Amino acid sequence: MNWVNKRKLPAIEAIKHNRQQCHDIDNLWNTLYSTFNTALYCQVDIEVLDEIIDKPTSYWPPFSKKEFRIAIANYNNASTPGPDKLL
């Protein structure tokens, strides 16, 4: 089973707030809480949404639950660790 072997983890950077890294859950929670409260009453310019180009609505032909189950049956497997079943 190749997926159980050791893997080299990607380099990551900790979340920083006021130039301090958040290493424990309390520090992270306080950072998220203060960030939310800072942005809570800020004005938002919704005119940026006017720049979004309207796209036509896609048409989906009707299909049954049985057709859907048959279509995704090939994707239900145990090739990855953890719960990967679609149905």
Can you lay out the helices and strands and say which pair or pack?
Blueprint: E1 16-17, E2 20-21, H1 25-39, H2 65-72
Antiparallel strand pairs: 1-2
Question: Can you give keywords for this protein?
Answer:
single chain; 87 residues; mainly alpha; two-stranded antiparallel ribbon
Radius of gyration: 23 Å
The total count of strands amounts to 2
Distance between the termini: 24 Å
SSE topology string: EEHH
Query: Which quaternary structure do these chains form?
Result: single chain
Q: Unreliable segments (pLDDT under 50, ≥5 consecutive)?
A: none
Global geometry: flat
- Broad structural category: mainly alpha
Helix percentage range = 25-40%
Report mean pLDDT, rounded to a whole number. 79
How many helices? The count is 2
The largest sheet has its strands arranged as 1-2
In terms of DSSP E residues, the strand content is under 5%
Q: Specify the biggest β-sheet.
A: 2 strands, antiparallel
Notes on the protein architecture:
There is one protein chain. This protein is mostly helical and 87 residues long. The chain has a domain at 13-42 and 51-75. Helix content is 26%, strand content 5%. It contains 2 helices and 2 strands; from the N terminus they run E-E-H-H. It has helices spanning 25-39, 65-72; strands at residues 16-17, 20-21. It has a two-stranded antiparallel sheet. Strand 1 (16-17) and strand 2 (20-21) form a beta hairpin. The longest helix has 15 residues, at 25-39. The protein is flat, with a radius of gyration of 23 Å. The model has no long low-confidence stretch (mean pLDDT 79).
